[in-house]
Amino acid sequence: MGSAARQAAHQIRQQLLEIGARVLEADVEDLELVEGFLAVKGVPEKRRSIAQLFQARFGAAVGNMVGSYDNQTTGGLDPRTGKGKGSAFFFLSACAAEVEVDTETGKIAVQQVVTAVDAGKAVNPRQCHLQNEGSMIMSLGSALFEEMVFDNGQPINSTFLEYMPPSMEDHPQKFRSLLVETPHPEGPFGAKGVGEAGLGPVEPAIGNAVANALGGIRFKDLPLRPDRVLAAVRSVRGEGA
Amino acid sequence: MKIEIRTVINGRELEAAVKPNQTLLEFLRDDLSLRGSVEGCGVGVCGSCTVLVEGRPVSSCLVLATNIEDKQVTTIEGLAVGDELDPVQQAFLEHQAFQCGYCTPGMIMATKALLSSNPRPTEEEVRDYLSGNICRCGTYAEVLAAVKSLSEKTTTQTTQPLASRR
To answer: Which residues contact A48 (CB under 8 A, 6 or more apart)?
Structure first.
């Protein structure tokens, strides 16, 4: 989508140049866009603002200019073998977590998380970090608290009173987000999506950290609720659940 | 049936007729077109609809409009003075303490209440106080940084009683 938007913007730029060529009686190749003005190269006084170009084209300083572009990514699966390039974009991310487990209550506190995401090219690095943080906290929620509970097909925890997303108190004391930039050949400026790219490895990282803290106890169900943790700890110790 | 109330919203005195079962949030949004306060959960646990009544934070989805009779209500719209943002709003902006922005009005009102009762909260106190405001984008670290920056500033900037800022 980013590539399509970029191409569409290029088309609009081209349309502006063509209007400017008529207005300024010059060739498109001799025009340049500088600081919101379209000018003849080498003749900076021969210039028009974008509003003036709209005026010339539409008779008013406002109007619609449409750029469009279909972006078809390459690849696809061979229907006979089922093999091939399944997606133009693969998302790579990594996560490390440090947890504290209270073996008396079964409660898990995530102390520290580091996540890394390959953004291709971070067009807006600040926003990429925020997306990364959001992925971390969302996945932390599904690792520890969030669970849809059904009773005979009826959801029984459908409000925030019973369904607990993480709050500020659950945000790890220490959090670091890392961006790796490996330019993607099919993305605009080498970029690819980072929204939710960091989601994947957070639950396994927390699960591994919990297993490590509990001397190898593995859980096969999420979320890692205190009652599940406590029951597992007690059964390993040989106590009744 | 409607009930006449007199109240003060963002420093403006007004009289209104409200339904007995109308929430404060519905009154603010539907009758007064103050749409900064938003409904998240509707059951008083997400904090998105937080407003201040007599300087104290309340979930406006749980308060009835009739409950604000003769009381002063401050909403997110009442913070900025002209073009000048409230220090809390400014701090949220500077720290980019939001992504989608849905929780932000409630988050800011809760911060306002926190700082007026506790001008220099510790990190633990901030986490505890703001744990009633859910941010699904998870931008908690930035909110924390914004609130910290305010608690480090001189207290006079953030703790003027709301009534005197009108």
So the answer is: A20, A23, A24, A37, A38, A39, A56
d(CA A210, CA A143): 11
User: Is it true that the peptide bond before B87 is cis, omega within 30 degrees of 0?
Assistant: no
**CA A140, CA A110: separation in Å to the nearest integer?**
8
Model pTM score? 0.83
The yes/no answer to whether this complex scores an ipTM above 0.90 is: no
Residue from A168, A169, A171 whose CB has the most chain B CBs within 10 Å, to mutate: A168
Q: Are A16 and A51 in contact (CB under 8 A)?
A: no
Q: Say yes or no: A138 contacts chain B, CB-CB below 8 A.
A: yes
Q: What is the pLDDT of residue A240?
A: 59
Map residue A130 onto helix, strand or coil. Answer: helix
CA distance B104 to B124: 20
Q: Tell me which residue in A131, A137, A161 faces B140 most closely, judged by beta carbons.
A: A137
Contact B18, B66 (CB under 8 A): yes
Whether A180 has its CB under 8 Å from any CB of chain B: the answer is no
